[in-house]
Amino acid sequence: MRQGFSLQTRHLTKMFGDFLAVDEINLHLEPGESYGFLGPNGAGKTTTLMMILGVLEPTRGDVLIADQPVRRDAFDLKRKIGVVAEYQTFYEEMSAWEYLMFFGQLYEVESSEPKAMKLLEKIGLEKWRDVLIGGYSTGMKKKLGFARALLHSPELLVLDEPVSGLDPYGIVQIRELLLDEQKAGCTLLISSHILSEVERTVDRVGILANGKLLVEDSMDNLRASVGSTHKLRLTVDHLTEEDLAVFKSKEFISNLEQHGNQITLWVENNADHRKEIGELVLDRSLIVLEMRQEEVSLEEAFITITENNLAKFTDNIAEVAS
Amino acid sequence: MTGNIFGKYLQPISVLHKKLRQKQLWSIGFFAAVSISLISASLILINNFRYVDVNNIMVERQILSTPVLVIGLLLSLFLGITASVNLSREYDKGTLELLLYGPVDEVAFILGNFWAQISLFGWTMVGVFIWSNIIIWMFNLAFDLSLLLILLGCVIMAVEIVAFGLLTAVLGGKTRNALVVYILVLAIFGGVQIGDTLVANLVLISGSTVTDPLLFLRNVLETANNVLRWVSPYAQLQRSVNALLVGAWPEYLLLLGLMLVEGSVLLFFSIRSLAAKGVRTTS
Fold first, then answer.
1. Rounded-to-integer distance, Cα A100 and Cα A146, Å
2. A interface residues, B as partner, C-beta within 8 Å
3. What pLDDT, in 10s, does the model give residues B256-270?
4. What ipTM score was computed for the predicted complex, to two decimals?
């Protein structure tokens, strides 16, 4: 069982000339935690990851991994970190096996051969282990990148868009690998646009826009913070205008949409209103075909938070310009 | 502390150097370079033997010095190019970034590349030593320690040339730019040396007067050549070998030391430039 590394960034800032790419980011990941790092394109996610990995010098601030400052020559620390970059690069003239053995030597992995074989089997590349990487598909390369990142059993795994370019089968394989790593105690930092994947894997998320960390919270708190309502989808056998008027009259229903026999109700999330709605349905003698309560998805939370920020950002720019 | 730093860097440098050396050792380019340099050296050697045969006099104290110098020069130029191409390709393709995520920094990366070329050159010089001894045995020549010292000089020249190749890769960025810079500098060095010899001969043949523009050109090329004698690794090696063959040990050692210092300075600037440049400029 691994311990997992903690990760902390303090006032992490990066400027490219006059452009502020990352603005005072303070992240804190506990050992063994899974953290989703979200943000629209150009938000500064990759720049932040590059600084965390010691590849890019911050303009201000610092990064601590396992309470140690990250320096380019912190080799012992870096040997415990696994990285899957968004755009992965490979030695295409090598076979997958040679590639893994090379990184096994570089990271001083003990008994790297059985480990590499096990990983190749997990990702379904064992049959192609002696084929040159140059002949691999994008998905195969992505999976091989995972095998390389996991070969040295990292304490911290940094993933930038981990499932982009993978087919559904590949996504399931990678998801299982990540869950195994999580169970083994590895700390995960996942930056992704595929929010449904992040939602399945992480404990907490941070949302970044225009270089600023807007929100950092658990999934439940994030959903709660985005709206005071949640959705309740109700499908009934036959719906009249009179029935709709009765639904609209109820105080706990803030909004209502009708699509044929299906109605979507936005109900206050201060309590579970399914019982009251059930009683209402009985009063109206409606036949319920389906009733489903939906929580605010990470995608909706993400859009709400980043749109609000974008609007503020645009207003600020307009104000400065005028 | 120093021991720790040395130990820390030894492992990544060793792994990187092994990977590159293996790749290079089995490349067609390397075999072509070795073959061309051996053929050139053999032709020079045959020519030298013919001269001895016709004139019945051996002018050079070490008949193998020029052939060995030619092998050293051609191979070190080739390894300088491959060092430059390897480094700029890693930068271009992004594999350098991948290495820097792990236990590699700019120092380890540059020194790993450098050591791959130098160790390969060193082993090739062992081969050249064996080849030279076969020649010595076949033609019943006397073995002279100067042969080993010339080979040592070749290795030190390679240090400077490979370090220069690495610097051009860091400064040039793209593989093509790096190669253009490398070849341009070599062409300037070679051009000045050849131009100086040619123009000096022309001046003598034409019997130029003080006002002749040819004389001005000769003076310019001569000055440039005098400067290059202290900068060009091949000129330095040639001078050091000449010094060695006449027994001028201080000059021989001084020139080897100078080549080592210049090579170290080039390596230092390669590392500093790569660190300053970084692997990414924007997200």
1. 11
2. 16, 21, 42, 44-47, 50, 53-57, 72-73, 75-76, 78-79, 81, 83, 85, 87-91, 93, 102-103, 105-108
3. 999 999 999 999 999
4. 0.85
